[in-house]
Design brief:
829 residues, alpha+beta, Isoleucyl-tRNA Synthetase, domain 2, Isoleucyl-tRNA Synthetase, Domain 1, Ubiquitin-like (UB roll), 7-stranded mixed β-sheet, 27 helices, flat, binds ligand ANZ, leucine-tRNA ligase activity, protein biosynthesis, leucine--tRNA ligase, M/V/L/I-tRNA-synth_anticd-bd
Length: 829
């Protein structure tokens, strides 16, 4: 046997595919079905590809190649998520312009992806930073704006001084930025927000019918946080017409309310506070204003203060004290709760601390069990001390009390969501400019013709309350080139320093552009659409392209995007659906997350641990197919698994063996195939086909290894047909090897569009079976016999088994128990 010249072979086939445009996306053939196979596109970071990238990319490539061979029209594109903090930080660190470093990083990523032989249609390559692309991202923003889904708001935001930007709630973990672990403060700032909450219900409902990992579905559901309950109105004693509305999921406990708690930012706090209590309340509100929601909800000790005011219970008419406490969040529900310390843990703690009344209104269903004294009883039960509702079980009481409130005009059923609106502006340079501008006002008597707001000291006011959308015909609005684009402490963002860009005159009037940019998520919200029609200059994509290719049939990427990217993208998609731009209600039909590849030490790969495997090195030493085969062989695609360099050598040997087996077949041209080989071949074709359908690549490779070993055992008599099928089967995962083998067997075109192998079910049926053999009740061996073998045949085979024969040797066989198809037991004394 000879070595496999992977370097030559891989270079040759990559050149062939490129020259022949092998993977150009076909014009859709209405007679055929289509598959749109999408990878989560990478951030072209300065570090280049790591071995985690090729895992998902090989899986999607294998499926694309498999589906082409199965006769589908396939769209399999690639591009770059090239805006955003990492790209900008890299430019800052290297003292270059982001546009330059981004271009360089893209070139390097592209070289690496090409070196791995992925069957992308590179004519459809896009980068989110391309002006052609930015134009349409801005266009979509304008559609959101025109529908009232993008608006300005002074919101308490997560301001990260170290990064010089505002972060989305999703980007803050335990009070630190998701990227870089920098401290994050809460501040009120003018921001652009996207009203994703308007779509909460749709985003929840749309999950139904998607073929997604259940964990990801659950994460999205929890993030949306649909909560079904009831609103109840408490009038404020002494304040005519003012009422505190609370949201509760336990309307059944209404008769157990002993106080009401407002969030410190609730608009009625000041009005309900008495003069006696004002100083204390003001101090408390001030002190809690800088705490994040997470701090507030996870605090060990409850804090709060009495306002001096009272609320009137909507049913009993009793007066209950109004407190302020920061365990109540201003941004959830109505920012106020009816406190039921007997049945809610947080209310119980709060009541214990401040000596407030506890009133039991739910008892356990089981006779004789009492509610605990030292804790809240939170389980369902039966209503007590609740007047007309006594005796109702929790569910019935919820309904009855909710209905009663509704009847009284003091509340009723209510659905609340945890989802918050999406803070969409960033103060950084490397993002899409938001296509909005504002009029500029000057002091009374100043003629705008005579002044220039760019001048130092020129007094003027930007009228943020009068936003004007950029004319669609004027898109794209490009970023200005800036020498110094580092973030600063001006919350208007670093673009505020690009004065020539920011201020402009039209019809004798001055205007100022919005200086916030879009977050990195913007570009990844719709890139899958653009791939369907990447060069369109009239529209983001045509309706024909949408009809031809959408939705994405298979989307592969990391589980870290379970909530953020996948929720934002679904939101934009649903907005575009409502606008009639797409006919498909959801973008990603099937979603698969590849499992993380860990270092050999079982730890996450990282520079600081020094356990990073560089795909360039692996390809240099073993070849692209070896890397592809290995990453698919490591284990199930979704599993987390450690890198094992020795196993790369193992698949590399398989590769060489397969190559030599095919070479032998090509040289000897053996037509004949034994019954045994025929059966093994058909069983392998069946197994590999089923495994490809299930994306179970590791077991497909195992099956091909078994077949290859069998063919190798035939020495010079490798049947040509078996070699051909093997070349076809291996090609989705190891395409260079597949092509080379195909060509060795005398074909002079690519196998990329050869029909996938077909097997004969009849030939896959096992006619023999394995059976355990016991001697005196202990298993001593295993025999392989025809399924319909009788006792005599089974005994004959058993006596050929050394260990069985040894146990019986010199003894008398007293009894043979033979259960056909199950077991052979020999009793010997
Ligand atoms: C009275 C009550 C009695 C409650 C009881 C629970 C148990 P989810 O499921 O998360 O929606 N709540 C409402 N708004 C709040 C806010 N802004 N900040 C903090 N807590 C708030 O939870 C809804 C429950 O959380 C509501 O039901 C309310 O407390 C509280 F035995 O009302 B409950």
């Amino acid at each position: 046997s000879t070595g496999y010249p992977f370097q030559e072979v891989e270079a040759k086939w990559q050149a062939f595919w490129e020259e022949n445009n092998t993977f150009k996306t076909p014009e859709r053939n209405p007679e055929k079905e289509k598959k749109y196979v999408l990878d989560m596109f990478p951030y072209p970071s300065g570090a280049g590809l790591h071995v985690g990238h090729p895992e998902g990319y090989t899986a999607s490539d294998a499926m694309s190649r498999y589906w082409r061979m199965k006769g589908y029209d396939v769209l399999h594109p690639m591009g770059w998520d090239s805006f955003g903090l990492p790209a900008e930080q890299f430019a800052i660190n290297t003292g270059a312009q982001p546009a330059e470093t981004t271009a360089k990083n893209i070139a390097n990523f592209k070289r690496q992806l090409k070196m791995l032989g992925f069957s992308y249609d590179w004519d459809r390559e896009i980068a989110t930073t391309d002006v052609d692309y930015v134009k349409w991202t801005q266009w979509i923003f304008l559609q959101l704006y025109k529908k009232g889904l993008a608006e300005q708001s002074s919101v308490s935001v997560n301001w990260c001084p170290a990064l010089g930007t505002v972060l989305a709630n999703e980007e803050v973990i335990n009070g630190l930025s998701e990227r870089g672990d920098h401290p994050v403060k809460r501040l009120p700032l003018r921001q652009w927000i996207l009203k994703i909450t308007d779509y909460a219900d749709r985003l929840e409902a749309g999950l139904d019918g998607l073929d997604w990992p259940s964990g990801t579905m659950t994460s999205q559901q929890q993030w949306i946080g649909k909560s079904e309950g009831c609103n109840a109105d408490f009038e404020v004693d002494g304040l005519d017409g003012e009422k505190i509305t609370v949201f509760t999921t336990r309307a059944d406990t209404l008769m157990g309310v002993t106080y009401v708690t407002l969030a410190p930012e609730h608009p009625l706090v000041s009005a309900v506070t008495t003069d006696d209590q004002r100083a204390e309340v003001d101090e408390y509100v001030e002190k809690t204003s800088s705490r994040s929601d997470l701090d507030r909800t996870s605090a060990k000790e409850k804090t709060g203060v009495f306002t001096g005011g009272y609320a009137i219970h909507p049913i009993s008419g009793e007066k209950v004290p109004i407190w302020v406490g920061d365990y109540v969040l201003g941004s959830y529900g109505t920012g106020a709760v009816m406190a039921v310390p007997a049945h809610d843990d947080r209310d119980f703690e709060f009541a214990q601390k401040f000596g407030l009344e506890v009133k039991t209104v739910v008892k356990p269903k089981k006779e004789g069990t009492e509610v605990p004294e030292d804790a809240a009883f939170t389980a369902p039960g039966v209503a007590v001390n609740s007047g007309e509702f006594d005796g109702l079980n929790t569910n019935k009481a919820k309904k009855a009390i909710t209905y009663k409130l509704k009847e009284m005009g003091k509340g009723g059923p209510k659905i609340t969501y945890k989802l918050r609106d999406w803070v969409f502006s960033r103060q950084r340079y490397w993002g899409e400019p938001i296509p909005i501008y504002f009029p500029v006002d000057f002091p009374e008597g100043v003629n705008p013709e005579d002044v220039d707001p760019k001048d130092e000291g020129c007094e003027h006011e930007i009228r943020y309350d009068q936003p004007i959308p950029v004319d669609e015909a004027d898109l794209p609005l490009e970023l200005p080139v800036m020498e110094d684009f580092r973030p600063g402490d001006d919350p208007a963002g670093c673009l505020a320093r690009a004065k020539d860009w920011r201020y402009f005159q039209k019809d004798g009037k001055w205007f100022a552009r919005e200086t916030n940019t879009m977050p990195q998520w913007a570009g990844s919200c719709w890139y899958y659409f653009r791939y369907t029609d990447p060069k369109n200059s009239e529209a983001a994509f045509s309706s024909k392209a949408d009809e031809d290719w959408m939705p994405v049939d298979l989307y592969i990427g990391g589980a870290e995007h379970a909530v953020l990217h996948l929720l934002y993208a679904r939101f934009w998609h649903q907005v575009l659906y409502d606008a009639g731009v797409t006919k498909h209600p959801e973008p990603f039909q099937k979603l698969v997350h590849q499992g993380m590849i860990l270092g050999t030490d079982g730890e996450k790969m990282s520079k600081s641990r020094g356990n990073v495997i560089n795909p360039d090195d692996v390809v240099d030493e073993q070849g692209a197919d070896a890397l592809r085969l290995y990453e698919m062989f490591m284990g199930p695609l979704e599993a987390v698994k450690p890198w094992q360099t020795s196993q790369v050598a193992g698949v590399s040997r398989f590769q060489t063996k397969l190559y030599n087996v095919v070479k032998t077949a090509a040289a000897n041209n053996v037509e004949e195939m034994s019954e045994e080989t025929t059966k093994i071949l058909h069983k392998t074709m069946k197994k590999v086909t089923e495994d490809m359908e299930n994306m179970s690549f590791n077991t497909a490779i195992s099956a091909m290894m078994v077949l290859t070993n069998h063919l190798q055992s035939l020495k010079e008599n490798v049947p040509r047909e078996a070699a051909e099928k093997l070349a076809l089967m291996v090609s989705p995962i190891a395409p260079h090897l597949g092509e080379e083998c195909w060509s060795l067997l005398g074909h002079d075109d690519t196998l990329a569009y050869e029909p996938w192998v077909e097997y004969d079910e009849e030939l896959c049926i096992d006619t023999t079976m394995k059976m355990g053999v016991q001697v005196n009740g202990k298993v001593r061996g295993e025999i392989e016999i025809p399924k319909d073998a009788d006792q005599e045949k089974a005994m004959e085979a058993a006596m050929k088994e050394e260990r069985v024969a040894a146990q019986v040797d010199g003894k008398d066989i007293k009894k043979i128990i033979f259960v056909p198809g199950r077991i052979l037991n020999i009793v010997a004394k």
